[in-house]
From TrEMBL:
Family matches, as Gene3D superfamilies: 3.40.630.30
Gene Ontology molecular functions: N-acyltransferase activity
Pfam families xref list: Acetyltransf_8
Keyword terms, alphabetized: Antibiotic resistance, Transferase
GO biological process: response to antibiotic; siderophore biosynthetic process
Protein name: Lysine N-acyltransferase MbtK
SMART domains registered for this protein in UniProt: AlcB
Keyword Transferase appears in the UniProt entry: yes
Top-rank taxon: Bacteria
């Protein structure tokens, strides 16, 4: 898994590493993130999580920036390697994403939908075998659901996951 996607609109991703743990822990403690991610962990726990993800094949932990300013945390993953695969009829090459805008000053200004669109476009461009990018925001997370919709994702049914009732959002190759 890699974070080396060609994003547009001034966005960039870079691989997260354990040195990012203090910033990611701070972002995850922000009320607008903590409520939905439930990962208000210590710096040490985040360092372990990032190292574990970076060493495996399941997901890629990334730090997102716009115009060279870091503002969020992104996990990109192959659905077939994820627990999500147990809950919907996934296709072999589906990509999934988790996105948290940690910088509270960046919330509510349309940045999320622009990032989501850029990420989905980049994943589809980078992987010709992939025809869908998915996400599973909490059904009650209205701002996130709206952002995915504005980024071209379509609601594709509700999922009862172990930790939440989610809305499967799907962005298909055009």
């Amino acid at each position: 898994m890699r974070c080396d996607l060609n994003l547009d609109a001034g966005f960039a991703l870079r691989p997260a590493d354990s040195s990012d743990a203090p910033r990611i822990a701070l972002w995850m403690a922000q009320p607008h993130v903590q409520r939905w991610w439930l990962q208000d962990w210590s710096v040490e726990r985040w360092a372990q999580e990032i190292e574990q993800q970076a060493a495996g094949v399941h997901s890629a932990p990334c730090v997102a920036s716009v115009d060279a300013e870091e503002f969020g945390y992104v996990e990109l993953y192959r659905v077939r390697h994820d627990q999500l695969a147990e809950y919907y009829a996934y296709e072999e090459n589906d990509w999934g994403m988790h996105v948290a805008i940690g910088d509270v000053t960046r919330v509510g200004h349309g940045l999320g939908r622009r990032l989501l669109r850029s990420l989905a476009d980049a994943l589809l461009d980078a992987d010709p075998s992939c025809s869908r990018v998915v996400a599973e925001p909490d059904l009650e997370n209205t701002p996130s659901v709206r952002a995915f919709g504005a980024a071209g994702f379509e609601a594709s049914g509700e999922l009862q996951l172990p930790d939440k009732k989610a809305l499967l959002m799907v962005r298909r190759r055009q």
